[in-house]
Write a structure and sequence with these properties.
By secondary structure, this protein is of the alpha+beta class. Helices cover about 30% and strands about 35% of the residues. β4 (about 105-110) and β5 form a beta hairpin. It has a single domain, classed as Nuclear Transport Factor 2, Chain: A (Roll). Strands 1-2-3-4-5 form a five-stranded antiparallel β-sheet, with helices on one face. The protein has helices at about 1-30, 60-70; strands spanning about 50-55, 80-90, 90-100, 105-110, 115-125.
Length: about 130
Amino acid sequence: MNKTLLILVLLGLLFTLTLSVHHDSESNSGASVSDDSDDSDANEPIMGGWSRVNVDDVKAYKDVLDYLQSQTNDLPQGSKLIKVSRQVVAGINYKFLFKQGETYREVVVWKQLDGKFEVTSNLQVTNPQEI
């Protein structure tokens, strides 16, 4: 019972922090997302849904990206990061969209509550507008 309550409290705090960071990065940053992305779906986060992260706000996802680059051989050198999204779960899922030439790759990394990482998806994408 106590573990369940603790997990619920931690998830609530994590969600609140995520909303705060998302709001701060939008209101304090005049930087724009890469020209290759479409901001039409950049809206307020939906509980349990994906929310956009400003690509230029590297500190918001640097630890996850560092892990990904150390673990994944499928990202070609010179790939350009064009979109980042996150989803609050039991931890946080980070979805990265990379581009190299005409090829797109979507990689999802789960940052667990204990700080460990796991690549849960690594796919070549034919239509990045659907992401």
